[in-house]
Structures are given as C-alpha cells and as structure tokens.
C-alpha cells in the first residue's frame, strides 16, 4: 500500500481566503510544505462560481484586496472578472498555483492525538484519496457551493418562462427584450437589476418582501487616484486602505449607536437619487436598524439611475403564486415576466461540508466554541477563515493568516506537536453571528458558538482585532501546547 502524501499544512479551498493563506505561508514560512485542496476545476472560489450579469464586490477593493498585495488602480467596487484575475495573479506571484489540487472534494478529516496528525479524505473523480498533515486550515468560506437557497414558491411549475438562480446562471440566457423579475433585495439583487437593464432587458422589476438599506458610493476612489500619482501604488494603497477601514468602522459604530440618524442620512441620499415623488418609504425604508443586516452598496447609484430612467422598478409585496405568464402578488397585482431570477439567498455550509473527527469522536460544530473566531475548542491543530459581516472579508482573512503563521512558528521553534484551545465552562455562550440576514438565521443553530468574554468573544471590529489578535500572547492560558 502506498503511503498517503504528507504536508505540514493542508488548506481546504482555493478561493480568496485559501490563496491568501497559502501566500502567507509562502512568504512568511519558507520551507513549509503545503497543499491546497479545491473541490472545483478552477481557483477563485466565489469569484469564479458566480457568473450572473454585473457580478462585483460589495466591499471596496482597497480593503477586500490582500494587505500584502495592493489592488492596483482606483476602482472601488470591482467586477467579478477583475477580482478573479487579481486572486489568480496573486497565486502565480507567490507560487501557490503549483500547490493546488483540483477536483478534490474533502469529505472528512480525522485527528489522531498520539500521531499528532490529520488524515484527510477527499473524493477525486469518483475515487477516494487521503493525505496527512500536521495542521489543517479550512478556507472554504461558509456558503454551499452546490445549492443556492430558494424558498417554496407556489405554482412555479405553471410558469411558462424561465426561472434561474444567480448561483447557477445559464450561459445561454439572452435577456434582450425580455421582461424580467428579480426576487430579492440583497446585494445580489441590487447588482443584478441595473446590470440586466444594461444587458437589453425590456424592463427589470425588483420584487421584494421588505426593503433593504441601499447606499450609493463612488465607483472609483478619488483619493487613491490622486495619491498614486504622487507616491505610487504601494503607499497610496496603504493610505486608502486605512482611510476606508476608518470610514467603514465609523459608519458601523454610528449605525449601532444612533440608528435613527443613519436611517435619515441614507433616506436623504436615496431621495436625492430617485425620481420626484418616489415612494421611498415604501421601497427603501427598512423596518430594521442599519447594519442589523448587511448594507447594500451600489456604485455611482446605478440602481437608482435605472429606476429613474424607467428601465427598472421596485415592487414591495409578497408572492401569492406563479402564473403561466408571471407572478400574482398578495395585493392582487400581476407582474408579467419572461424570466424570473430567484436572488433569494445562499445556503450556509461550514468547512466545505467536511466532517471533523478528533480521536474517533465526530465533532459537532454547534457544541464547540470558537476561539478568536478562527479555531475550535477541543480541535487540535485546526484553524478556519471566516470574514467579517460588517466589513471586507479579507480584513479578517489576513489577520487569521498572520495568527496561524505565528502559531506555526511557535510550534517549529519549541518542538510542539499540537496546539488546541481549551474551553472554560464558566464562559457564557452566544451565537457566533449576531446577524439577522436570512442565510444566517436559517443555519445559525448549526454553527460553533462564541463566548461572552475574550478570547472567545467575536467583536466584528477590525480595528479592535488588528490590535488584540496581532498582539495576543500565545501563552494565554487558553491555548494548550503539547
């Protein structure tokens, strides 16, 4: 029998997080052996999977970009193709692309304490393969890449047109002259509506049950453009990044402390961009407070422009049933449609759906507690990367990578074979994600818990984390080394 291939670090996922994690290993821990297991045929994760019209970032690129590799140019909210190119260019620059194993769907990972080693099982083309590693790092995000979320929609089998989900956008869908309805009001919906209008749709209607906060932001960063002319890409990126971090953090704090003020500011901005007399309180005034759910950003007000020029509209109502020619609403209104897009959300799936086993016992994630929102209580030599819900994903991904590098350096220098967070039973429990978005609420009961005190508490605050995580002692009485 051939021995399983062994590496120092095994990374699950070759998306934005996985490529970044591997790049940190390559630049900060030279000589470390590692592999990246990617279930799909290509790298890029989200930015390769989603192909719907107008797909773009919903965070500015100067914070969504890696800290160690500047995002070039002044584009703030970039298109998916540009982001994908940036991720893959990073992989090539740091040699990560040579370590990615494609079509490897990780199904389980088993830790053996006496051997201080993970055995990881993956399905590859209908066969089962195993690898072993000293350290396992899950960088697969928290979305189910196989299935998007679609609620039960009465009568959909009667509809004579086409129903598509943004996660599985068909290449042959021609929108020219089509009447389209986009069901949803989140980041995907507000991106799709103006993009579909630009693609030649006869008309696009965004059908929402309730409004979402939508805020227009500049599509390009003027400060970045001016600074680059003076100090170059590297320095201008660093300054712009910190400027945007400060703005994001301030907006979030003010939203939580003075929600009515932020509500008024956003409403005033929307009124200025919408047609005179538009029913802004019906369609753009949510019942919840700002940042109870993620705020949707639109570049240069493109959604509002589409509404203003008549190529798009918003209807706030509930679906009674599909009909042969469209959608009948609870109010009695009927929306004629040739194409219906169910931008109704995503399904959560942690660790890429892989089962974790520690010394023969299956790990139930909801029975564990997250340490610094990157490790699990009772699970040795394991880290996971999950970004912020109120700021750019990569801000947290970079912090996690820096911390894991510190752990690995410590293990190397002291000869430690394992490190594991040990939970103090006196620490209270709260949900890992205090967020009202549907995709979180549907699955929050399956996620690890967080604690009520540091280092088990999750702050959702990059400025706080940048100080506490980078400055954290590795001998903190919670991490146990062996």
UniProtKB/TrEMBL annotation:
Database matches in InterPro entries: FAD-binding_MO, FAD/NAD-bd_sf, Flavin_mOase-like
GO MF term list: flavin adenine dinucleotide binding; N,N-dimethylaniline monooxygenase activity; NADP binding
Cofactors (names): FAD
Gene3D superfamilies referenced in this protein's UniProt entry, alphabetically: FAD/NAD(P)-binding domain
Annotated Pfam families: FMO-like (PF00743), NAD_binding_8 (PF13450)
Keyword terms: FAD, Flavoprotein, Monooxygenase, NADP, Oxidoreductase
Protein family according to the UniProt entry: Belongs to the FAD-binding monooxygenase family.
Name used for this protein in its record: Cation diffusion facilitator CzcD-associated flavoprotein CzcO
Source organism per UniProt: Nocardioides cavernae
